[in-house]
């Protein structure tokens, strides 16, 4: 690499760091930062960075790894249970959008084969942008997220047909015949069988052998080999790279290595995915946008309206409300990289209609706007349907408890508050935990507990008590200071691991600080004194005095300089998980007792149905389509129970 190439990389890195940092400060999706860098530094603006075969290939690998990690979140039984949504909803969306757009293009003067290609291009959405943004928002497993992903998966499958039609049209090979379509479908089916078979019979033994030898670098290489091999197989027969990677991830999701695989692949995914979005931004020609502004903007609006309308109408039969189907339509309303590829093929061949170039710009602009639309899809849907949002917004206006952190401690506090008739709102920064908790019906929001706007939005002004459950003293200290700056008098309780930051937290304004080690000592000595026949009243008085003295009697202990406190969250392996029952799942129509009878050795903590949460459901509870089943147990037991619930 020459000095010029290194300079380009440094400029690119500096721009990315600055712009993405600004996006986070403005609370905008980082995606917009990457796209903005591509637009500013690309060939159509400053010209610092130019698209090349190498950068495009590396960028596409970012999407491959994204779909691979998404596949790790899906199990094969779940995908089988979703087959009706993928084949039904996906086919309706692609078919109706293509026909409508093709009819409009034909009316505008495009020949029929080209009109069909244009229609197919408009029907495509951006898998990378939609999946990335929904994952960041913890919405990929919500109803609208599931419906959107079903559509995207079908688009990946059918893209090969549109690509074959476009190639035949621009290459002068004549019309797209049924024989051509059958050949493409046959090759696609063969590729899928190869990926599924190799993943099931080769991947598990491979990772077992590698894990047995405890080689981290070998494990990393094996993960890259599996992901890229599956992508290569599907690409070799004309399907997308992303589809093969998704299938490979989905098959590894059924193994005990899924979490380590995800940890290994994440650095590659994040870096290369950022490059992908930069290359997408480089495609936008600002000069064309300025010259044909009215035409391009009209096409962007028409693109969003057409696709959102089609999806809203066809998705209504797969969900219980217009609100959810409209959210799905907004999520997939923009154009995508597959559509861009089809239109670019027409433009490069010289066979395009007069609309192809403006459509190319419109698809790119819609992709740039897509993260904002997805980010605010709930708000936009409510405005369009004129609905008033329920949930935490209404709760924040009433008296409630704010829980900063919703880990094991926060969840235990929430359950006990709920049992005693008190309402709460929890704040957490773990998107997976927030997603699972919201699916279970808990009042949890994603956000930083030390952020002023977040605290205001969860109703700090009306809160009765604030509880900080984070064991990390610096994080707790930042939250305490922000809460006290916004509201001086609210009771503020803080959990700590030991007494190392007790005085500092008290000076910052904590009403009570509860060190776990001291409370454990108090409970243990209370039981010891009971066995020594000490009167209960004397034990209660002693405990009260020690707490009143701020644990002074317990703070004179010998401590090793390098001593580490055990983390209960690490040692306790049991956890909660939510499972959404899609159409076709085996558990639909069966009782919880029947599910347990098929070997599901977990505790059924709750069932959420139509927004109502039933805690500790009876074994005779009959499950329905759309139910959210909350299960509790060891990770391996949870995997088996999910497979039982979703089996087709």
Which structural class should the secondary elements be placed in? alpha/beta
Residues in helices, as a percent range: 55-70%
- Shape descriptor reads globular
Describe the largest sheet.
Answer: 6 strands, parallel
Summarize the structure.
By secondary structure, this protein is an alpha/beta fold. The protein is 64% helix and 8% strand. Strands 3-2-1-4-5-6 form a six-stranded parallel beta sheet, with helices on both faces.
Report on the architecture of this protein:
With 648 residues, the chain is α/β, with parallel strands linked by helices. The chain contains 29 helices and 10 strands. Strands 3-2-1-4-5-6 form a 6-stranded parallel beta sheet, with helices on both faces. A 4-stranded antiparallel beta sheet has the order 7-10-8-9, with helices on both faces. Strand 1, helix 20 (408-419) and strand 2 form a beta-alpha-beta unit. Helix 7 runs antiparallel to helix 8 (143-170) and helix 9 (178-212) packs antiparallel against helix 10. The radius of gyration is 28 Å and the shape is globular. 44% of the residues are buried.
What tags apply to this protein structure?
648 residues, alpha/beta, six-stranded parallel β-sheet, four-stranded antiparallel β-sheet, 64% helix, globular
What are the SSEs and their pairings?
Layout: H1 3-25, H2 30-41, H3 53-73, H4 76-81, H5 83-107, H6 112-123, H7 127-136, H8 143-170, H9 178-212, H10 216-236, H11 241-252, H12 258-282, H13 286-291, H14 293-315, H15 322-331, H16 337-349, H17 356-375, H18 377-385, H19 392-395, E1 400-404, H20 408-419, E2 424-428, H21 431-439, E3 444-446, H22 452-457, E4 463-468, H23 473-486, E5 492-496, H24 502-508, E6 512-515, H25 516-531, H26 536-548, H27 568-571, E7 575-580, H28 592-597, E8 603-609, E9 612-615, E10 628-633, H29 635-646
Parallel strand pairs: 1-2, 1-4, 2-3, 4-5, 5-6
Antiparallel strand pairs: 7-10, 8-9, 8-10
């Amino acid at each position: 690499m020459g000095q010029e190439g290194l300079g380009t990389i440094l400029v690119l890195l500096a721009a990315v760091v600055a712009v993405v940092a600004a996006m986070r400060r403005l609370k905008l999706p980082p995606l917009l930062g990457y796209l903005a860098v591509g637009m500013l530094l690309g060939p159509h603006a400053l010209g610092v960075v130019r698209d090349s075969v190498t950068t495009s290939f590396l960028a596409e690998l970012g999407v491959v790894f994204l779909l691979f990690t998404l596949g790790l979140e899906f199990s094969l039984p779940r995908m089988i249970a979703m087959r009706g949504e993928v084949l039904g909803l996906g086919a309706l969306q692609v078919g109706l959008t293509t026909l409508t757009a093709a009819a409009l293009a034909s009316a505008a003067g495009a020949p029929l084969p080209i009109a069909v290609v244009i229609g197919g291009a408009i029907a495509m959405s951006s898998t990378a942008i939609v999946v990335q943004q929904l994952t960041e928002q913890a919405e990929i497993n919500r109803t609208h997220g599931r419906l959107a992903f079903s559509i995207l998966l079908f688009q990946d499958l059918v893209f090969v047909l549109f690509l074959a039609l476009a190639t035949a049209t621009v290459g002068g090979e004549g019309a797209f015949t049924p024989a051509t379509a059958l050949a493409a479908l046959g090759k696609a089916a063969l590729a899928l069988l190869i990926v599924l078979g190799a993943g099931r019979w080769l991947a598990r033994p491979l990772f077992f052998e590698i894990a047995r030898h405890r080689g981290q670098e070998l494990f990393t290489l094996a993960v890259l080999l599996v992901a890229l091999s599956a992508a290569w197989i599907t690409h070799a027969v004309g399907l997308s790279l992303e589809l093969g990677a998704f299938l490979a991830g989905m098959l590894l999701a059924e193994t005990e290595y899924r979490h380590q695989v995800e940890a290994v692949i994440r650095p590659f995914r994040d870096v290369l995915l950022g490059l992908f979005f930069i290359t997408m931004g480089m495609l936008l020609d600002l000069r064309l946008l300025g010259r044909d502004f009215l035409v391009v903007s009209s096409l962007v609006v028409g693109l969003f309206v057409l696709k959102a309308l089609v999806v809203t109408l066809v998705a209504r039969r797969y969900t219980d409300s217009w609100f959810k189907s409209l959210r799905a339509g907004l999520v997939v309303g923009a154009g995508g990289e597959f559509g861009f590829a089809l239109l670019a093929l027409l433009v490069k061949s010289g066979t395009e209609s007069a609309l192809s170039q403006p459509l190319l710009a419109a698809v790119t602009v819609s992709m740039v706007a897509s993260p904002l639309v997805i980010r605010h899809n709930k708000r936009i849907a409510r405005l369009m349907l004129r609905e008033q949002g329920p949930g935490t917004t209404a709760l924040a206006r009433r008296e409630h408890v704010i829980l900063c952190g919703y880990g094991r401690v926060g969840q235990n506090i929430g359950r006990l508050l709920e049992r005693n008739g008190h309402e709460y709102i929890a704040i957490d920064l773990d998107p997976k935990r927030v997603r699972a908790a919201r699916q279970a019906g808990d009042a949890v929001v994603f956000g930083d507990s030390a952020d002023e706007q977040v605290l205001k939005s969860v109703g700090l002004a009306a809160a009765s008590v604030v509880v900080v459950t984070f064991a990390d003293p610096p994080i707790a200290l930042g939250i305490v200071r922000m809460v006290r700056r916004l509201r001086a008098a609210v009771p503020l309780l803080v959990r700590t691991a030991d007494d190392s930051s007790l005085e500092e937290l008290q000076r910052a304004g904590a009403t009570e600080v509860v060190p776990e080690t001291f409370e454990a000592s108090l409970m243990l000595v209370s039981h010891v004194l009971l066995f020594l026949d000490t009167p209960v009243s004397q034990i209660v008085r002693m405990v009260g005095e020690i707490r009143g003295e701020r644990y002074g009697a317990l703070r004179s202990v010998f401590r090793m300089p390098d001593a580490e406190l055990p983390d209960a969250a690490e040692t306790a392996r049991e956890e909660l998980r939510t499972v959404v029952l899609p159409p076709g799942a085996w558990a639909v129509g069966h009782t919880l007792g029947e599910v347990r009878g098929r070997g599901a050795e977990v505790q059924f903590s709750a069932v959420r149905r139509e927004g109502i949460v039933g805690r500790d459901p009876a074994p005779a509870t009959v499950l329905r389509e759309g139910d959210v089943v909350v299960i509790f147990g060891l990770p391996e037991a949870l995997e088996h129970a999910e497979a039982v619930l979703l089996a087709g």
